[in-house]
Amino acid sequence: MKILVTGASGQLGSTFKSLVGKNQVGNLEFTFKSSSELDITDFESVREELLSEDYAYCINCAAYTNVDQAETEKELAYQINVTGARNLALNCNESKTVLVHISTDFVFDGFLNTPYVEEDIARPIGFYGDTKFKGERAVINNLDEHFVIRTSWLYSEFGHNFMKTMLRLAHEKDEISVVYDQVGTPTYAQDLAKMILYIINAHSIDYGVYHYSNEGVSSWYDFAKAIFDMEGLKVKLNPILSEEYPTPAERPKFSVMDKGKIKKTFDLEIPHWKDSLEVALMAHAKINI
User: Fold this and answer.
1) Which of 115, 222, 224, 229 has the least C-beta neighbours within 10 A?
2) How far apart are CA 150 and CA 104, in angstroms?
3) Given 128, 180, 188, 221, which residue is catalytic?
4) How many distinct helices (H) and strands (E) make up the chain?
């Protein structure tokens, strides 16, 4: 089967590339297109690419993900996250391609105190989350053969993410403050990528919206502490409230997602976030020798 990956130079796209390089993708043929090679906001470019090959699946890793900058770069965020998603859905419909679209826990407002299920009302509190939710709707409304995967707190040895930022800061500073009143679940990009490959290789037609993160619950403070402890880094870590670290965009205070649907549908076992963090840190060390 031929698979198109958009946004291929980003964190998740790079993870798929690494799995291809390790021969861990099964009998799949990948075409990787970075945002500069395929602009998903350009309808005709998307159409031309999808009709140029007999793609069975398109994995949309292209996204505007700068949560704070989205508050000022609204047009760009909307174009990529909403218009781009719609362009892919419409053209996948024409080319008979299944679309795997990546979304986020930020579609929720964080006011619940129990894990969010797929049917809970999406009520984003920031512009980034709003564009991601509208992107979901653009996919759902224009293409029946879709998997919308909401994930959370994505990190890896590639790209820009919390794990790599903490590792860098630990070597630059003796003291770091991290918020402890925002709770969610870190997700290792390799686990997410392998789950998507599992769905594809299973030829599943159980289309719809799914939640996927690693198991367990964490605050950003807990996540940072685990990183430092596993790496043996001696840095003073201070837990602070969100109001002590104001940002342009408000974040949900609680965005833990219930993964019962995806586990039951695909008979998945999902690793705990701390176990996956150990794997990610080892992978990061290997490429930064």
Assistant:
1) 229
2) 4
3) 128
4) 10, 12
